[in-house]
Amino acid sequence: MRLNHSTQLSFIWRIFLTAAASIATLRIGAGLIAWRAANVLEKPTYTVVKRLPLSRGSGEVEIRKYEPYLIAETIVDESSMRRAGSVGFGRCAGYIFGKNTPVGKTEPEKMAMTAPVRSVGQAGEKMAMTSPVRSEGNKKGNTKISFVIGSKYNLQNAPRPIDKSVKVKRVDGHYLAARSFSGPPPSDDRVAEERSKLVQVCEREGIRVKGGKDETYVYGYHDPVVTPNLLRKNEVCVMIDGSGLN
């Protein structure tokens, strides 16, 4: 029996809606799995020293004291952290996932992922980030991209990178003022806006912001593709002088 044109269109439309619903369900399911997996990753250890209200509007700023940790870092000749991130991510991910020489061993070692994504650059008018990496940029075009290395390693036992552009470094203990929010990796304007809020609160509280002019840290705790934007956690931070805060 042949279907008329209207019936055929209705049948095709039902197939399309069913397929779209199935894809959406799979997408949400994969996103939740990715979100849960990221939430249990090892993170740098820190203590919240204070929680301070914003100067205007709702929300708060966390003042944190971080313990030392290691990073795998590479330098990319690019002032935009979004563009530099794709290059730096590949280098650092290669190190974490096996492009390394373990101390006292011959076989490469696959190391565990950690969180958050760390990006550090000059906010100024604009600044961007990618995930899951840490990047540190300046206006001359050099951007540092890095992954956090798990706490079971130190400078003596961490595997040596095969890629000579990747270096294992120690991040000393430090203090940050941090703002948390959900959504996709923040735009340049969003980062600059959040940094401005942090600086205003620090000035109000008499806390000195350290680092170069407009230096800003951007942290991403979840991947920017699979995890739904509503569940993604981002942070914008500035380095501060922690003397007198304890």
TrEMBL record:
The keyword Chaperone does not apply. Keywords: Membrane, Transmembrane, Transmembrane helix. The chain crosses the membrane at residues 12-35. InterPro entries: Reg_factor_effector_dom_sf, SOUL_heme-bd. SUPFAM superfamilies: Probable bacterial effector-binding domain (SSF55136). Pfam families: SOUL. The keyword Isomerase does not apply. Belongs to the HEBP family. This is SOUL heme-binding protein. It comes from Cyclotella atomus.
